[in-house]
Amino acid sequence: MSNSSSPRPLAVLVGVQLPGVSDTEHAADLAELGRLVHTLGYEVAATVSQRRDRLAAGTVLGSGKLAELARLTGGRGIVPSGAKGRKSKARERWEAEAEEAEEQEAEAQETGAEADEEIADDDELPEEALEAEASEEPPAERPTVVVVDHELSPSQLSNLERATGAQVYDRTGVIVDIFHRHARSREAKMQVEIARLNYLAPRLRESTGSRERQQGRGSGDSAVELDRRKIRDRLAELREGLAAIQHDQENRRYARRDQLRVALVGYTNAGKSSLMRALTGSEVLVADQLFATLDTTVRALQPETRPRVLISDTVGFIQKLPHDLVASFRSTLDEALEASLLLYVVDGSDPTWESQLEVTRSVLREIGAQSVPSRLLFNKADRLAPEAREALLQRHPEALVLSAHAPEDVAALRQTIIEFFERSMVEAELVIPYARQARIGEVYEHARVLSEAYDETGRRLKVRALPAAMARLTRAFQT
Ligand SMILES: Nc1nc2c(ncn2[C@@H]2O[C@H](COP(=O)(O)OP(=O)(O)OP(=O)(O)O)[C@@H](O)[C@H]2O)c(=O)[nH]1
Ligand SMILES: [Mg+2]
């Protein structure tokens, strides 16, 4: 099938430019979708884009554009159906929650109207008002996958599959699949499976339903019910397993509570793992892929400081990140919540850095991390012209502009981190009775010892530590 220059299967991107979305934003959205699709292993062969008031309720695109898309994939361009379009119902469906959609489907089955075959095209703009581009030449090999840059209802998804003859993904589906592929730890795998089952459940219902309807109504209900029960059971099992893992993690986090902690947060591919590597000398995965990192890694800042500073690398964010996925990565993000300092990593060389920063801010706001002290880092400075660098600093004079690949920049960042903690530390004297010398290690772990003296009461240490750590140490060694 594939030739040597293009060993990847081909995909077509589909985007609808809705009112209020500028050309630049629309192009950036599609470019990002292309990178997601590439991360998933496909080559983008063409893009079909249409300007519309809203997504067509039945098939996203209007009939003309749908036919154009189907020519690329080799499909028929229409949804095989005898059913009349009933727009209002279709629109309701589009807006409805998955559970509601399910009820409507049952209702439609009863009245004999196939809800998923309703196509409403009358909200399409006149042909001349459309600004559409598709790649001129259809590729020699046909794309086998269509990826739509919007969240699709189960019926839109199956309508598009029938019209194009290709496998159809929506944006969420692509992200869920990438997460599935990149999950490494047991915890991440479980989190992703929960998100995936939640995502697949309504779609599974739909496709199972239509297959069974072909076999005769009624016969399928028990099978669908069985699938649902299986999913429910599996979800319960996963949640239980996850709760146990997360309990362990909470304990580990609790043990680290007094340590100096920094979390790298930011948009996917901004360079968080690269900075993590550079700051800690660890071998975390760095890749030019979206969502390369799904697990939180915690390592000490190198060369080690006293007390040591722990750095965590976290999962990246993306615009329109499905809520379920955010929820399932909650525990990863708790790491950020408990840090004393958040480093917001932004790819300064990306023309959409502002909206990427906004996405990061809003996710962190959502989990309540907006009050954690933070520092803005514009990464990939090696790709910036001096003027671009200036422009960034003009917008954010408080930011650091740096490159994860430049050792002197990383050294400066290390210094910034150390100074941040230095400013928040307090000094005090601890007296360690001779009887409790065995616990001296705790002092060294959480504080920096400035001087030592001995007298009849014990060892007198002048130390610097964060206020909370100091309070705990003082209590621990009180006579
Ligand atoms: N030119 C340049 N490339 C960089 C820099 N930092 C990171 N990169 C590249 O950007 C890509 C993504 O880097 P990662 O460190 O994996 O990014 P991340 O933020 O951890 O991404 P996710 O884990 O996917 O969220 C890789 O190809 C890196 O080599 C930099 O300072 N300059
Ligand atoms: Mg990473």
Topology:
Layout: E1 10-17, H1 23-39, E2 43-51, H2 63-73, H3 87-95, H4 98-111, E3 145-148, H5 154-164, E4 167-170, H6 171-182, H7 186-215, H8 221-255, E5 260-266, H9 272-280, E6 297-300, E7 309-313, H10 323-328, H11 330-337, E8 341-347, H12 353-366, E9 374-379, H13 386-395, E10 400-401, H14 407-424, E11 426-433, H15 440-446, E12 448-455, E13 458-465, H16 467-476
Parallel strand pairs: 1-2, 1-3, 3-4, 5-7, 5-8, 8-9, 9-10
Antiparallel strand pairs: 6-7, 11-13, 12-13
Helix pairs in contact: 1-6, 5-7, 6-7, 7-8
This protein binds guanosine-5'-triphosphate and magnesium ion (MG).
Guanosine-5'-triphosphate (GTP) is lined by residues 268-274, 286-293, 316, 379-380, 382-383, 403-405.
Keywords: Cytoplasm, GTP-binding, Magnesium, Metal-binding, Nucleotide-binding
InterPro entries: G_HFLX_dom, GTP-bd, GTP-bd_M, GTPase_HflX, GTPase_HflX_N, GTPase_HflX_N_sf, P-loop_NTPase
Biased composition (Acidic residues): 97-119
Q: What is the structure about, briefly put?
A:
By secondary structure, the chain is of the alpha/beta class. Helices cover 46% and strands 17% of the residues.
| Quaternary structure state of the chains depicted | single chain
CATH architecture of the largest domain: 3-Layer(aba) Sandwich
Query: What does the largest sheet look like?
Result: 6 strands, mixed
**Strand and helix order:** EHEHHHEHEHHHEHEEHHEHEHEHEHEEH
End-to-end gap = 78 Å
CATH superfamily of the largest domain: GTPase HflX, N-terminal domain
Give the number of DSSP strands.
Answer: 13
Number of helices, counting only DSSP H or I runs of 4 residues or more: 16
Could you report the average pLDDT, rounded to the nearest whole number? 82
The domain count comes to 4
Q: Please identify the structural class as seen in this structure.
A: alpha/beta
Quote the CATH topology of the largest domain. Answer: Rossmann fold
How large is the share of residues in beta strands?
Answer: 15-25%
> Stretches where pLDDT falls below 50 for ≥5 residues?
82-135, 205-218
Could you tell me the radius of gyration in angstroms? 27 Å
Distinct small molecules bound, one entry per kind: guanosine-5'-triphosphate, magnesium ion
Strand order of the largest sheet: 6-7-5-8-9-10
The helix content is: 40-55%
